[in-house]
């Protein structure tokens, strides 16, 4: 179960990404990287961050702890940056945050960073499963912290949820974008990763994760219908994709054979 903390101090924006996440201090004195509900990508980015992040964790990958963070109207009210004040105003209420990993560095093959085969293979399988295109050389979203790999930024995963008509088609898709995966060259055990993943994931694991997504994030737009229907849709996507995993597993193996 995700904990809930209260934001107490806006520390600094993280300007690499487009969504203007920020380092924020909370009432437990921890520092968090906050993904704001009011950012341009909208609440579905937080939905993807939560669902994909917790699936990654269930697969045994290191994902920084995810928490809900309550933002009140006072936070950053006097920040000199208009864009930041606007973002905070639009995000009053519940947001999602990750434990901040101080002193972490971005994984960089050019600096001779390497990944263990088992983790690289599971990461390739995981990103294919959740249709995450954001783990590439130009956009690694992979941190090194105390010599271990940490997987961040899953806001672009599960992109079928921007077009629900595509649910069944996306659940079956081979995910050819895997050819650009940052860790593909180290992923020499993709078949083993699939076997392991099939032991770890199932409908009740997915349902327990989906139960934690706030209703309001699931139906951000008028006419979206009700949250329970949306939750059932995610559950159908995830279970169908797990059943169809041979397709994207074979695609990942094929993409790797062309690379190494
Ligand atoms: N948990 C974390 N600990 C330390 N740094 C982080 C953490 N999460 C994100 N960052 C830093 O903030 C940057 C932006 O965060 P990210 O989640 O990738 O958001 P965006 O959607 O803007 O790309 C990352 O590239 C990384 O440098
Ligand atoms: Mg990013």
UniProtKB/TrEMBL annotation:
Taxonomy, superkingdom: Bacteria
Instruction: List the molecular function annotations (GO) for this entry.
Output: transaminase activity
UniProtKB keywords: Aminotransferase, Transferase
Annotated HipA-like kinase domain residues: 13-222
Q: Name one Pfam family in it.
A: HipA_2
Q: Which InterPro entries match?
A: HipA_2
What is the protein name given in its UniProt record? Aminotransferase class I and II
Which source organism? Paludibaculum fermentans
Q: What is the lineage of its organism?
A: Bacteria, Pseudomonadati, Acidobacteriota, Terriglobia, Bryobacterales
